[in-house]
Specification:
Blueprint: E1 5-8, H1 18-33, E2 37-42, H2 46-49, H3 52-64, E3 74-79, H4 84-96, E4 100-103, H5 107-117, E5 138-141, E6 147-152, E7 156-161, E8 169-171, H6 179-189, E9 194-198, H7 205-214, E10 221-225, E11 228-229, H8 245-250, H9 255-263, H10 278-284, E12 295-296, H11 299-311, H12 315-332, H13 340-350, H14 360-364, H15 376-384, H16 388-401, H17 406-419, H18 424-436, H19 444-451, H20 453-466
Parallel strand pairs: 1-2, 2-3, 9-10, 11-12
Antiparallel strand pairs: 4-5, 5-8, 6-7
The chain binds one RNA strand of 76 nucleotides through strand 7, helix 6, strand 12, helix 11 and helix 17.
Length: about 475
RNA sequence: GCCCCCAUCGUCUAGUGGCCUAGGACACCACCCUUUCAAGGUGGCGGCACGGGUUCGAAUCCCGUUGGGGGUGCCA
């Protein structure tokens, strides 16, 4: 048995579909585990050919998912358009062997005729006309009588009555090959052994299989995995849903989290947990274990996965992963003074509070800004509390002398709170707003330690005059 | 219209005739922890679409119904 050859054949559209990402991942997992090959074939159109960046985008997206073109298991990219002549040659062979015939009926004529017969679609009217090639004539496949059985690795045997399949077009009136034909011919010339794709392609599988057989080859192993759907249970589409993998990447979802989540849609690893490293997926993924029903792409669950992956990062890894968003934040906050060490020190407190990397800067911005960005409503509320001004004043005094270390600051402030007869939760509110600008955020005393005594005092002192304390 | 696929908690799934008074995860709720918010811990809510078979026994097999989805181009 030769090593299996899997093919992933996206058509470039300017963005990479998450559904495509999932099938790519499945192909990749199998290719890696079985020592086979992952073939990237770009189903390029005229438009795509003029936009090489679209193809680059696909390769980038795959690389982000961990499907690297540098990996020995990776082959391609190939471009369908380069094989046009072979598609035409194959069509010619099909014609010569009687598997296909020319038809000179126009779409309108076909419609009229079907209407007259009270039927639908093309009725094979030119089958025995004995026509040769000519301008305006299409080449149609002569669908044989009988049934076509598709052996699907996910669904088992699926039978199609050939009588329900009309003689479909192989070559257009202008001689150019149809996608269906091109696809089969490419799979054949690339010696593809497994075709794993979304379920929406199942209905045209018998057509492809018939072409394989007419060309003298046994069909590959088919596998149709369930589609991804939205809340309305409709196939997720570019029009209605957020399907671009890039948008998730840009929002700060980690690639391993995305990969892991995508793979749990329609499949699950053995053992108790579904959060598993890629290696486990590669070792355990089996087509036979894939579910048959559509899966809802649940953003909330994706977020939960992402949170887990973020928390699992070391502080340094987190800082590195978040860097693009931190850089962006710096660019939009020119007055900020960045301190990488301070950010890394803060990381353990921001990681449990961020579901995406994009949220990271917002949690710690006060550490780097010359002035915190105040949440006005929260500020007003915290300071409106009975005795807030006095508490802040006492805090300033206590913070001026206590050792500048989280525990000590905590102790000092606890004493102040007690003197005011306040619980920690209440007491810290004015200080938190004064220093961080918000009523919620990372642990206060650790934040103060990192901010520094001078800056903490400065912000506390700056507070009363700048606000109207009632 | 015709063809095809699908059907376990709200969602993603485990389950391949007895281990199922159906397990886990996300979400939700409660409690605990706690300097806020998170995170974490504990617990709770909640499901085999329906009807017939087959069988000693069915979430698991068969048939039907209903309900969803997909396909059906001289698109890719």
């Amino acid at each position: 048995m030769d090593a299996p050859r899997f093919r992933f054949a996206p058509s470039p559209t300017g963005s990479f579909h998450i559904g495509g990402a999932r099938t790519a991942l499945m192909n990749w997992a199998l290719a890696k585990r079985l020592g086979g090959t992952f073939i990237l074939r770009i189903e390029d159109t005229d438009e795509a050919r003029n936009r090489p960046e679209w193809t680059e985008g696909i390769i980038e997206a795959l690389a982000w998912l961990g499907i690297s073109s540098d990996d020995p298991a990776f082959e391609g990219p190939y471009f369908q358009s380069q094989y046009a002549q072979q598609h035409i040659d194959a069509a010619q062979r099909l014609f010569e062997t009687g598997h296909a015939y020319y038809c000179d009926l126009t779409s309108e004529q076909i419609q009229d005729r079907a209407k007259a017969e009270g039927s639908q679609g093309y009725g094979g009217w030119s089958r025995d006309a004995g026509l040769g090639p000519g301008p305006g004539r299409v080449l149609r496949f002569r669908v044989p009588a009988g049934t076509t059985t598709v052996h699907d690795a996910v669904r088992g045997e699926v039978q199609f009555d050939n009588a329900t399949i009309e003689d479909f077009v192989l070559l257009r009136g202008n001689g150019s090959p149809m996608f269906l034909l091109a696809n089969v011919v490419d799979d054949l010339t690339m010696r593809v052994s497994h075709v794993i794709r979304a379920e929406e392609h199942l209905p045209n599988t018998p057509k492809q299989q018939m072409i394989w057989e007419a060309l003298g080859h046994a069909a590959p192993t088919w596998a149709h995995v369930p589609v991804l759907v939205n809340e309305q249970r409709k196939k997720i589409s570019k029009r209605r849903d957020k399907v671009a993998l890039e948008s998730y990447r840009d929002e700060g979802y980690l690639a391993p989290a995305m990969v892991n989540y995508l793979m749990t849609l329609g499949w699950s690893p053995r053992g108790g947990t579904e959060i598993v490293p890629w290696q486990v997926i590669e070792d355990e993924f089996r087509l036979e274990d894939v579910n048959h029903s559509p899966a809802f792409f649940d953003l909330k669950k994706l977020a939960a996965f992402n949170g887990e992956y973020i928390r699992a990062l070391s502080p340094d890894e987190f800082a590195t992963a978040a860097e693009p968003w931190l850089a962006q934040w710096r660019a939009t906050h020119p007055t900020a003074v960045w301190d990488q060490q301070r950010f890394v020190a803060m990381a353990p407190f921001v990681q449990p509070r961020a579901t995406t990397l994009a949220e990271a800067p917002g949690v710690v911005d006060f550490l780097f800004l010359p002035q915190p960005e105040f949440d006005e409503a929260g500020l007003a509320k915290a300071l409106a509390t009975e005795g807030a001004a006095a508490l802040v004043a006492d805090s300033i005094e206590a913070f001026g002398t206590c050792p500048w270390q989280a525990d000590a600051i905590n102790a000092a402030f606890t004493a102040v709170a007690e003197r005011h007869g306040l619980k920690m939760g209440k007491a810290q509110a004015p200080v938190r707003v004064a220093v961080t600008g918000r009523t919620v955020g990372p642990p206060l005393f650790e934040s103060l330690e990192l901010l520094g005594r001078d800056e903490t005092l400065r912000r506390l002192r700056a507070l009363p005059p700048s606000v109207h304390v009632s």
